[in-house]
Amino acid sequence: MIFMCCHPEISRDARVALSLKTVGGFSVREIARAFLADDAAIAQRLVRAKRQIREDRLTLEMPRGTELRRRLDSVLDVLYFMFNEGYTVNEGESLIRQDLCLEALRLARLVASSSITEPRVDALAALMALKSARLPARIDQAGDLVLLEDQDRSRWDPHLISLGFHHFDRSMAGDELSEYHVQAAIAATHARAAGPQSIDWPMILHMYDQLLAINPSPVVALNRAVAVAKVRGPAEGLAAIGPVLNDPKLRDYHLLLSVQGQLLLELGRRVDAAACFRAAMACSCSEPERRFLRRKLARCAPE
After folding, report:
1. Of 208, 196, 133, 199, whose CA–CA distance to 164 is shortest?
2. Which residues pair with 145 in a beta bridge?
3. Dihedral sign, Cα of residue 269, residue 230, residue 243, residue 37
């Protein structure tokens, strides 16, 4: 059904949004968060896509042969967005939806085992498996967020890690280097580390440089700034955030404010850090993330 919705005559963003809405059952708000866009913009995108289908008399039927390959990248976009929504739920009482992550992984593996597979499909499956392995450790018994560096790695799922490396090895066939390859390599670097002290942050920073060259998005730039801070210190990490602070796509994006607040806190700028955490709490996020931000805000109190 996702292949059916990803009609090549419809714009790529519209076909992904249509698939998420029609097949995945995502709300307009959830899709908007995935695209870092306004609800109204996504609603209009869906209206235009449906109008185009009607006016151009497009048939949403199962494609065949080369037509399947034309739709592959859009299908992978849908699966990637689906996985991310499960990995970090944007609103509500829960931080994760494991069922959504595992369903996205299952579908990615189905595509990877098909006749139209490409190395980037295995790269996406590897990324999903390696990140899904962390799910049991991402929340504590109270349902609160646990950062990657604080997770109990004995709770990571060894079967999913093994599956992730299986697909990662398969993704190395040929010369292709996609965004999914680099993201999977970053996840693999975390998985190989014996503990937080042995994570190869210089290598991860190098890979974020590669990722930014492939996909110069503000979210990638934000994640790269975290790696910069790990390698070169919070001051340089804060400087690396500078170029995306006024990006309209990150307006009201709580993770940007949270990262900025953390780096300010590490620099001893408690008042500025507190302002960032308060602003982050005013943004849309899940309740576990909001509780995490409250704990961060409490650390900003004068000693």
Report:
1. 133
2. 139
3. negative
Compute the distance between CA of residue 67 and CA of residue 250 in angstroms, rounded to an integer: 35
Please check the confidence at residue 158 and state whether its pLDDT lies above 90. yes
CA distance 152 to 62: 44
Q: Residue 184 half-sphere exposure, CB side, CA atoms within 13 Å? A: 28
What's the rounded Cα separation, in Å, for the pair 219 and 208? Answer: 11
CA dist 196 and 27 (Å) reads 37
- Per-residue confidence (pLDDT) for residue 66, from 0 to 100: 85
The pTM of this model reads: 0.94
* Residue 55, CA atoms < 13 Å, CB-side half-sphere: 8
Nearest of 87, 139, 138, 77 to residue 108 by alpha carbon: 77
- Residue 139 bridge partners (DSSP): 145
Q: Are 101 and 128 in contact (CB under 8 A)?
A: yes
How far is 127 from 50, CA to CA, in rounded Å?
A: 32
The per-residue pLDDT for range 69-102, each reduced to its tens digit, is: 999 999 999 999 999 999 998 777 888 999 999 9
Query: What are phi and psi for residue 194, nearest 5 degrees?
Result: -70, -25
How far is Cα 160 from Cα 131, in angstroms, rounded to an integer? 9
Average per-residue pLDDT for the chain: 93
Distance CA 147, CA 129 (A): 18
In degrees, rounded to 5, the angle at the alpha carbon of residue 32 between the alpha carbons of residues 290 and 134 is 50
Give mean pLDDT, residues 231-249.
Answer: 95
